[in-house]
Known about the structure:
Layout: H1 12-24, E1 30-36, E2 47-48, H2 52-60, H3 66-75, H4 81-88, E3 95-98, E4 104-105, E5 112-117, H5 118-149, E6 153-156, H6 165-177, E7 182-183, H7 186-192, H8 202-206, H9 211-221, E8 226-229, H10 235-252, E9 257-262, H11 267-280, E10 287-290, H12 296-304, E11 311-314, H13 316-319, E12 330-338, E13 341-344, E14 361-368, E15 374-381, E16 390-394, E17 402-406, E18 408-412, E19 415-419, E20 422-423, H14 430-442, H15 446-449, E21 459-461, H16 463-483
Parallel strand pairs: 6-7, 6-11, 8-9, 9-10, 10-11, 15-21
Antiparallel strand pairs: 1-5, 1-12, 2-4, 3-5, 3-19, 12-13, 14-15, 14-18, 16-17, 19-20
The structure holds adenosine-5'-triphosphate, 1-O-pyrophosphono-5-O-phosphono-alpha-D-ribofuranose and nicotinic acid.
Residues 264-268, 292-294, 298, 301-302, 305 line the site of adenosine-5'-triphosphate.
EC number: 6.3.4.21
GO molecular function, one term: nicotinamide phosphoribosyltransferase activity
GO cellular component, one term: cytosol
Amino acid sequence: MTYHNLSLHTDKYQINMMYAHWKNGTHNEKRVYNAFFRKNPFGNGFAVFAGLERIVHYLQNLKFEEEDIEYLQQQEEHYDPAFLEELRNFSFTGNLYAVKEGTVVFPNEPIIRVEARAFEAHLIETAILNFMNYQTLIATKAARIKQVAGDDLLFEFGTRRAQEADAAIWGARAAYIAGFHATSNLRAGKLFGIPTVGTHSHAWVQDHDTEEEAFEKFVSVFPNNAILLVDTYDTLRSGVPNAIKVAHKAKKEGKQVKGIRLDSGDLAYLSKQARKMLDEHGLQDVKISASNDLDEQVIMHVKLQGGKIDAWGIGTKLITASEDPALGGVYKLVAKEKNGMFHPVIKISEDPNKITTPGVLTFYRILDKTTGKSHGDYIAMVDETVPKEELKMFDPVHTYKQKIVKNFEAVEMLQPIFINGKLVYELPTIEEIRKYHQESLSQIWEETLRLLNPQEYYVDLSENVWKTKMNLIQKYRKETNDLE
Ligand SMILES: Nc1ncnc2c1ncn2[C@@H]1O[C@H](COP(=O)(O)OP(=O)(O)OP(=O)(O)O)[C@@H](O)[C@H]1O
Ligand SMILES: O=P(O)(O)OC[C@H]1O[C@H](OP(=O)(O)OP(=O)(O)O)[C@H](O)[C@@H]1O
Ligand SMILES: O=C(O)c1cccnc1
């Protein structure tokens, strides 16, 4: 895939802050930022991290071309030519740590940590959040759909309804990571190695004198994999009977109609009737697929009503994450360098959920060695040793809620991706990511995975992190009181 240089894919305030740092001589000081989200989308109990591959390519290709420099010069009269010269030599030289794509993640944990010169850390915020927020959102929506679909096949059909081309292909990839089986977008298929799928549209049927002729012609060119759309005129009176006729004829000629597609009406009723009609004609091997504004709710209800659908094609509601269209992930400064050392910094808010967790942080998934399931996640300083035998886990807000965990394995979730600007991580294949996602899901109790009112997963702080946070809150509270 050719990756375009996206250096200007940032907000102007980032370049302004880079400029202000440069003018003040602080641009080479190191900063630490964490990317995280505060709330699971769709009322879900978890999210599925995606976007890392795009972030890796973005950082590898990050440079200011001559035309970008010229454009910046025109945009802001204050930019000093010597600053623009500095941009000419720009590349990402920092460290980036991230969880693996496909990981089940939770609110408020640092899923990406950036350690870089203030100059670089500012520039990359916007693009990192752009990639992480969208792809994680779609992977999460896809995981919800996957959960209700069971063993049924899931096809991603969203491109025509997606918010432009990038969203279509990266959304198709995110859906595949979360367990979809194929996409209708050939470019996504080619770029990422996702299996592709295609039926035909209503236009194909309208284009012929009769529906039967349309089906026959289609089967004649796709003798073993045609899926016939049966709802153009009347699903049960015309579409299904014509498909049956054509399927019989095909059989006699050594061909095979692979399936039919329902795209309107009551999908439970129509699929049950269609299955009955097909079976009565000995066509048990003709599968039924469905589409039409599907999401996890409709799929679940159609299945509860006894619908006989083998494959689901999902477009609009997946690719636009229609009922919750933004993840809201943020990138916050958590430590800054002074005299060669990192010092934790905090952002205070009236809303306790918006107070950041300071320090150079990592986090661990605390897996029970007997069940293989997670007790929760544990955020600690990178230089902290996590106890091996007994771990005290406590709720960081209601601290009296605590438990002592034994017989566990603490798995560090953040992986080094770039060290001193060098890529040190081998990007996994899409199949490896998809498999890893299932493994990650299997470590979470089903009470947290359920679609409706899931049990909240514990994301706890080490005592050290908690104390650092409380001390900083006290410090700022005291300073503010002193001012009054
Ligand atoms: N049995 C069902 N239970 C719950 N929802 C369903 C069922 N069958 C279809 N739906 C969903 O209901 C929504 C509306 O379907 P409806 O039949 O009203 O519209 P339509 O079929 O698109 O209409 P039209 O026939 O005019 O194209 C769609 O999102 C569809 O997926
Ligand atoms: O409903 P979605 O989840 O968004 O899935 C994609 C939709 O796109 C197609 O319809 P469209 O009316 O665009 O074209 P068609 O003529 O092929 O039906 C397809 O038949 C699906 O209904
Ligand atoms: O192949 C299909 O049936 C398809 C592809 C894209 C959108 N709707 C349907």
